[in-house]
Amino acid sequence: MERRDFLKQSGFTLTALLLSPWSVYAFPRREGEVLIPFADQPPVSENKRVLLDWNHLDTFITPNEKFFNVSHYGKPEVALGAWKLEVSGLVDNPLLLTMEDIKARPRQEVTFTLECSGNHGFPTFTGAIGNAKWAGTPLAPILEEARVQENGIEVIFFGHDVGEEERRGVKMRQNFARSLSLSDALEDTVLLCYEMNGEPLPHANGAPLRLIAPGWYGIACVKWLKRIEVRDTRFMGRFMARDYVTMREEKRSDGESVWMESSVGRTKLKSLAAKVTRLGDKYCIYGAAWGAPIDRVEVSIDNGAWRKATLDTTESAEFAWKIWHFNWDNPTKGEHTVVSRAIDTRGNIQPAGDSAHITGKHTYWESNGQIVRRVHIP
Ligand SMILES: Nc1nc2c(c(=O)[nH]1)N[C@H]1C(S)=C(S)[C@@H](COP(=O)(O)O)O[C@H]1N2
Ligand SMILES: [Mo]
């Protein structure tokens, strides 16, 4: 190799190291490292949709072309030239913002792991998650500029996508919509985003503009934004009050059962063993933990004692998943189970899959139980 080329190359490596330390040391793609796929990962090629393939998780940031997408009413074509965002309802100063107006406002970024609340476990639906660096402008100053009236309590986000709903014999053509309470909408982390991983927001992920509500499940992050409306009543649309409603039977000590129905909300503490690799005779389990501020992750093999994993991402990216690894010394040949549990900074432990909290839940949304994985060591 020419010396100049060599310098150029090492220069690149150094730049890559400085710019994205995670992708370099979180998953050292070490020479000769072999993937031992989990036996319960369905072949991802069979999925027509783009979903995260945990077996091949090897970067902290999920590239845009590998980022999952969910759309309940198809992907609407939005005429970019004519696009404007309406801010209306119970406000003294209704706004009509162009993309130029929005881009002229202060820019804010957040690295946020977006998970669909329907992401409920192997062997079915687990890949509806990704971690991206989102950029846009904070919502709160826009609401302040619109001057929300005293009786405004709810902020509804309408998308451009439209679907037909029927309820009690009434047919309704309605836009996709979700709401946040005014106080939740005013949190300074909530953004209107036009950029994803340094690129213009892809159409599938909500271009030209989407809501990013860090710390909330994906359903809150309304794509293809059309209108933001302030109201004086709770919003009960399909995606707030019918779908994306968790039904849980809570047994009290006095024997009474309390049925709790709640709208999918903030993310829940969760972790997953993503893949096993072998380098020579050394085995390693890699995984991720997210949904709450992570203190530590522990791993249990074949129902053995919980042992501490090493967190590879120590950066203070509050809303991003943490990547972890666990050195698995001398596994015997044959079948094994691997399970991880995350513990948050307040000491909460990710619940076991067979705990009452999880088994009392009769819907699949917000499933954050421990996920037992199966692997065959050849
Ligand atoms: N307008 C609109 N926004 C939407 C949806 C939708 O169907 N329409 N789906 C929601 C759901 S259920 C999820 S999980 C996230 C997915 O975001 P992504 O497609 O960028 O991954 O978008 C949310 N925002
Ligand atoms: Mo979702």
Short description:
The protein is mainly beta and 378 residues long.
Report on the structure:
With 378 residues, the chain is mainly β. The chain is built from seven helices and 21 strands. Strand 16 (294-301) and strand 17 (307-308) form a beta hairpin. The radius of gyration is 23 Å and the shape is globular. The two termini are 39 Å apart. The model is unreliable at 1-26 (pLDDT under 50). It binds the ligand Nc1nc2c(c(=O)[nH]1)N[C@H]1C(S)=C(S)[C@@H](COP(=O)(O)O)O[C@H]1N2 and molybdenum atom (MO). Molybdenum atom (MO) binds at residues 70, 116-118, 218-219.
Going across the biggest sheet, name each strand in turn. Answer: 1-14-15-19-18
Q: Approximately what portion of the residues adopt beta-strand conformation?
A: 35-45%
> Radius of gyration over alpha carbons?
23 Å
What is the N-to-C order of secondary-structure elements (H for helix, E for strand)?
HHEEEHEEHEEHEEEEHEEEEEEEEEHE
Into which percent range does the helicity of residues fall? Answer: 10-25%
Largest sheet: 5 strands, antiparallel
Number of helices: 7
**Which parts are unreliable, with pLDDT below 50 for 5 consecutive residues or more?**
1-26
Spatial gap, N to C terminus: 39 Å
Structural class: mainly beta
**How many beta-strand runs?**
21
